[in-house]
Design a protein that fits this description.
Number of helices: 19
Pfam families: ATP-grasp_4
Oligomer: single chain
Radius of gyration: 29 Å
Shape: globular
Organism: Aphanomyces astaci (Crayfish plague agent)
Strand content: 15-25%
Keywords: ATP-binding, Ligase, Nucleotide-binding
Protein name: ATP-grasp domain-containing protein
GO molecular function, one term: ligase activity
Largest sheet: 8 strands, antiparallel
Strand order of the largest sheet: 13-12-9-10-11-14-18-16
């Protein structure tokens, strides 16, 4: 009996959910070829590729051509001669995009190989957000008002003559990126200019240089994600999610939760039907996609934010949750739509009633510093609906404030038969964040005491509360009144000496050391200088007014103290 070996399947940039796609390919008995696109951050891709994928691939190829995918037109060339030469030794049965950076190369390569493909023609509109928006507008669908700019003057012209936002709210972001990377909500032309300067020509989180900046109208409403798979133009919606996003750490769109939706209402059906028309407009006739769509209540209609012509990202952590809630998932359905027509046909056109309720809760860090303890690991795992958690930080790690999906410290996945139980756990996680119950960072205890002290120093006497820490022996709550002149002088000298010492220590610190300490020295300086000023003001023997220079310095210090107080 002759056993015919299955062909090889190429996964372009098997990163994030692409790793799960690569594993599914191997599990089906196909040979795996890993292809790194020229857009991808190659060192990171290689370093982070798990052994179960890297060691089982029959080939690992580095594409050295260019896709020029940031340019909003189709007359581009992709140099694939060396890549095609490297593939000659293999019988290739399909080309799949693993992540966003692999989409354009997958389209061009599958086209050149004569395989199932969405085609090289129109590939730009499946990556470039400006071209994408114009493509669906030309198809007669609701599209966001926008312009793609490489110069400031063109942005000014678009906002002043075309967009004319009232109130002034404008979105500025790269034409190609993902995960909320460098997405700005601007409320003035000055903020638009700052965002443009930050984006244009800089390298984004996908390792790509931003060749153009996208300026769009601000869509108001609730944002949904529609996950799909398609075979020969037949679309299946395999999951629908609802985003909970909002401002945090001066960033406008931080993810707080991503909930799997029971997509059976008329509104949900309208969103899904609109999404399928978007896929047709973008000529997505094969493979996976996920579309971010805003439901605008004032229009009672959906509007596209953007589409990714690949699987839902987020590390692929959604796969076990969706499996439990729906009985299938987008990764498995992706391989089905290319290689198993019977399994694809058995998928329902739209998701039905949920078997359980699932939700991702991206933890939000409001702190910066080196993590000393991580009590949140046990606290999170003890939740009634806890399914799994993916921590990107731990003891000794550098914690940063969360501003997008790339800076979240942990992704917690909840799953339960009861939606109420799951939602109660979401609230518990938010409470742990607010109460600093997830982690402690270096100097956090000292910070808390210092901030309480600053609050007392700046509060009206009638509103002061709490004891002054023992190390700050000078009475800041009341004037020295009954104290002897010698005691007052001694206290004043002590304050001056401490402040001088701290000044020297602070100025001699490296920037990194200051960051690691949370700038505790600077907060101490504010306290010492504020308290020293109070002693001077309240001392009966001191009736001189501060000089204008000292006064301006003191006002500045007071403002900084209030800023710190506001953080609490």
């Amino acid at each position: 009996m002759c056993i015919v070996a299955k062909p090889a399947v190429i996964v372009v940039d098997p990163v994030s959910t692409g790793l799960h796609v690569a594993r599914e390919v191997l599990a089906r008995g196909f040979q795996l070829i890993v292809l790194h696109s020229s857009d991808a951050d190659k060192p990171a891709c290689i370093a982070n590729m798990p052994a179960d994928v890297a060691t089982h691939a029959v080939a690992e190829i580095h594409h050295h051509g260019t896709t020029l995918s940031a340019l909003p037109h189709d007359h581009q060339s992709v140099d694939m001669d060396s890549t095609l030469h490297a593939l000659k030794a293999h019988v290739v049965g399909g080309v799949l995009a693993g992540c966003e950076t692999g989409v354009t190369l997958a389209d061009h390569l599958s086209d050149r190989l004569g395989l199932t493909t969405n085609g090289a023609s129109g590939a730009v509109a499946r990556r470039n957000k400006y071209a994408m928006g114009e493509c669906i507008r030309n198809a007669g669908l609701r599209a966001v008002k926008q312009c793609a700019a490489t110069s400031w003057n063109s942005i000014v012209d678009f906002i002043e003559h075309d967009l004319k936002p009232v109130p002034f709210q404008v979105i500025v972001k790269p034409v190609e990126s993902a995960g909320g990377d460098d997405v700005f909500l601007c409320r003035s032309m000055t903020e638009v200019k700052d965002a443009f300067d930050h984006i244009q020509g800089h390298v984004n989180q996908l390792g790509m240089t931003n060749m153009a900046t996208l300026v769009q109208e601000y869509l108001v409403g609730t944002e949904y994600v529609v996950d799909t798979v398609t075979r020969h133009g037949v679309h299946k919606v395999v999951a629908m999610w609802e985003y909970e996003k909002g401002p945090a750490n001066d960033a406008p769109f931080v993810y707080f939760a991503v909930r799997l939706v029971e997509a059976t209402s008329p509104k949900h059906k309208a969103i899904m039907e609109y999404t399928l028309k978007v896929l047709d407009a973008l000529h997505i006739r094969h493979g996976p996609a996920h579309a971010e769509v805003m439901w605008q209540p004032h229009e009672q209609a959906p509007c596209l934010v953007e589409v990714g012509a690949r699987c839902h990202g987020n590390g692929g952590y959604f796969v076990p949750t969706v499996d439990r809630c729906l009985g299938y998932n987008q990764v498995r359905a992706t391989v089905d739509c290319y290689f198993d027509p019977t399994a694809f046909a058995s998928l329902p056109p739209f998701p039905g009633k949920l078997l359980a309720h699932g939700c991702e809760v991206p933890l939000v860090s409001y702190d910066e510093g080196v993590i000393e303890t991580c009590p949140g690991v046990n606290a999170v795992a003890s939740l009634a609906s806890f399914q799994c958690a993916y921590w990107s930080v731990g003891v000794g790690s550098r914690l940063v404030r969360t501003i997008d999906v790339f800076t979240k410290p942990c992704s917690v996945w909840l799953l339960h038969a009861s939606k109420n139980v799951m939602e109660a756990d979401v609230k518990r996680l938010r409470k742990l964040e607010r109460n600093r119950g997830l982690w402690t960072v270096q100097g956090e205890a000292e910070h808390a005491g210092l901030r309480r002290l600053i609050a007392n120093v700046n509060a009206p006497e009638s509103n002061r509360q709490g004891a002054i820490p023992a190390e700050y022996a000078v009475n800041l709550m009341q004037p020295f009144g009954g104290a002897s002149a010698s005691a007052e002088a001694s206290a004043r000298d002590k304050q001056k000496a401490e402040a001088s010492s701290l000044d020297k220590a602070h100025s001699g610190m490296s920037a990194q050391k200051k960051a690691d300490r949370g700038d505790i020295f600077y907060e101490k300086l504010i306290i010492f200088k504020t308290s020293h000023n109070r002693i001077k003001e309240n001392a009966e023997s001191d009736n001189k007014r501060l000089s204008s220079k000292d006064m301006s310095q003191e006002v500045d210090r007071g403002q900084k103290a209030k800023q710190i107080q506001t953080v609490t």
